Amino acid sequence: MQDQTLTFEQGPIRPPNEAGSLLIRVSRNCPWNRCLFCPVYKTEKFSTRSMEEIKEDIDKIAAGIEQLKNFSIEKGFGGEVTHKLLSMLYHQAPALLPVANWLYLNEKSVFLQDADSTVYKGDKLAEIIRYIVEKIPGVERVTTYSRAKSLARRTLEELKDIKEAGLSRVHIGLESGSDNVLDYMQKGVTAQEQIEGGAKAKEAGLIVSEYVMPGLGGKTWWQEHARETARVLNQINPDFIRIRTLAIHPASPLMEEWNQGKFDPLTDDEIIQELRLFMENLNGINSAIYSDHILNLLEELEGVLPDDKEDMLNIIDNYLALYPQEKELFRLGRRTGLFRSLDDLNKKHLRGKAEEIFNQLEARGITVDDFINDMRTRYL
Which of 150, 369, 37 is nearest to 361 (CA)? Predict the structure, then answer.
């Protein structure tokens, strides 16, 4: 197979649960790009892409899909993208791999990049989505990042038109519902705008996934951060609440704040205490909570409100009740990927591996905290 170069733009990030989605870039970088905790895009300027550029990329992807199917038929795979076909493409047509992987995973979803596609007016974004659905076979779900402020600025009719065109879900970086925290972190949005944007997206029929960031208030605002974030979410009632614990990346402006003593981060135990206060204050909503990121200490902290609230609080309490040495071993096992739940502490083979790493660190004079802090930045 002769590799017909398939070059289409892709941005640097997407939500973890969109790992299997086809990535289509409709804008470049972030229109705000001032958040202290974020290391992404800081050296880049925001720009929108022209309709011609976007449609050209979509056409290239559609042509690549057709090329892959023909190659699959030629090789006896009946038009399907199999693991064996993927292996062949690594050597014969590597440029087709992004599209081939999407077909292989069969997620049938498209994620619009970069940080906020709803900066486009409703009619333009709807045109982009309709073109995707028309040209790329098999697309059943289209999702995107959005800033709450952008959603608040869109009319309900615009959002309904976008939904009708095929957008099914918006991923919103709420981070905090505290105006003090939002202002300090230069988030560029107020708690009320968070509520307006999320609620309007819900009213338009979109699936709303809100991301919260435990630890973002530091020692100064941790209680306010927990309570106010819960208050805002109680008024939105999002479909999903996703937990993304703060980790301070060396390239983020927040690192300088920390180095200058202006920001005092929480310890793991303090973040879990904050999470408990946050969970206690989630009331009157039926959101699904996900802890689907390695930065979160308690990956098992998942469930649907209100039915699973007590179970999730029990998980938090079980961690807080551990002896200090057990907490340290669990933290080490979790950050190294050995542990997925508190029960893993009781699995002899996993515990033994964690203890072995602990002993190696101790012999080298490295504390668990120093080891974990170093590892955290690799997850961002």
Answer: 369
- Domain membership of residue 303 (yes or no) is no
Tell me if 295 is assigned to some domain: no
pLDDT of residue 13: 86
Contact 329, 358 (CB under 8 A): yes
pLDDT one-digit tens code per residue, 161-196: 999 999 999 999 999 999 999 999 999 999 999 999
> Cα(214)–Cα(296) distance, rounded to whole angstroms?
9
Range of the domain at 339: 322-380
Phi then psi for residue 65, to 5 deg, are: -65, -45
DSSP 328-374: HHHHHHHHTTS-SSGGGGG-HHHHHHHHHHHHHHHHTT--HHHHHHH
Q: 47-48 and 27-28: which strand pairing? A: antiparallel
Q: How does residue 146 score in pLDDT terms, banded at 50, 70 and 90? A: very high
Residue 36 and residue 215: Cα distance in Å, rounded?
13
For residue 117, being part of any structural domain is answered with no
The first and second tokens of residue 49, run together, are 């892409």
pLDDT in tens, 57-116: 999 999 999 999 998 899 899 999 999 999 998 888 888 888 999 999 998 999 999 999
Residue 143: which of 11, 24, 293 has the closest Cα? 24
Q: 365 to each of 219, 362, 369, how far by Cα in Å?
A: 28, 5, 12
Q: Is residue 366 assigned to a domain?
A: yes
- Cα gap 243→256, rounded to integer Å: 24
Find the length of the chain.
380
DSSP string covering 94-129: GGGHHHHHHHHHT--EEEEESS-GGGS-HHHHHHHH
Task: Provide the 8-state DSSP code for 24.
Answer: E
Domain count, the chain: 1
Distance CA 298, CA 265 (A): 18
Q: What is the pTM of this model?
A: 0.93
What letter would DSSP give residue 5? -
